[in-house]
Amino acid sequence: MSEKLNIETPHERRPFKAHGHMDVVTLGDFTLGRGVFEPGWRWSNDVKPIAGTDSCQTHHTGICTSGQMTIAFEDGNEITVGPGDVVDLEPGHDAWTVGDEPCVILDTGIKAYAKPA
């Protein structure tokens, strides 16, 4: 069965502790999230209390559409993503918004992201 739903009317909105939210649309086995990470957002402050893990354990795949975010991995590597950057991010990281513009990322790896453990 073919389906469609506009991201502006998501099935679910998952608020972060502060500084943004994740809009979630699920069609069959496909889940897409639009993360809006406001200035000041940091995973370890805004999602860790929800996830209950020491680092983000989600495997993210998606594209940044605006703003910037730095991702710091447990092995010490860091990357910064911005508009147009496509990502495949392994679990085990912290992340934070860079600058004073919200970072927006469309993410296919968020089925359980920012849901209470």
Précis, in short:
The chain has 117 residues and is mostly beta strands. It has 2 helices and 9 strands; from the N terminus they run E-E-E-H-H-E-E-E-E-E-E.
What's the SSE blueprint?
Blueprint lengths: L11 E4 L4 E8 L2 E8 L5 H4 L1 H4 L8 E7 L1 E6 L4 E4 L4 E4 L3 E6 L4 E5 L10
Antiparallel strand pairs: 1-2, 2-3, 3-9, 4-7, 4-9, 5-6, 5-8
Which consecutive residue ranges, at least 5 long each, have pLDDT under 50? none
Second-tier CATH architecture = Sandwich
- Average pLDDT, rounded to a whole number, is 94
CA radius of gyration is: 13 Å
What is the straight-line distance between the termini? 32 Å
The CATH class = Mainly Beta
Shape: globular
Figure out the total of helices. Answer: 2
CATH superfamily: Jelly Rolls
Output the structural class: mainly beta
Give the SSE string. EEEHHEEEEEE
Helix content: under 10%
Instruction: Provide the CATH topology.
Output: Jelly Rolls
The total of beta strands comes to: 9
Which percent range describes the beta-strand content? 35-45%
Spatial arrangement of strands, main beta sheet: 1-2-3-9-4-7
Counted up, domains total: 1
Largest sheet: 6 strands, antiparallel
Keywords:
single chain, 117 residues, mainly beta, Jelly Rolls, six-stranded antiparallel β-sheet, three-stranded antiparallel β-sheet, 2 helices, 44% strand, globular, Cupin domain-containing protein, RmlC-like_jellyroll, RmlC_Cupin_sf
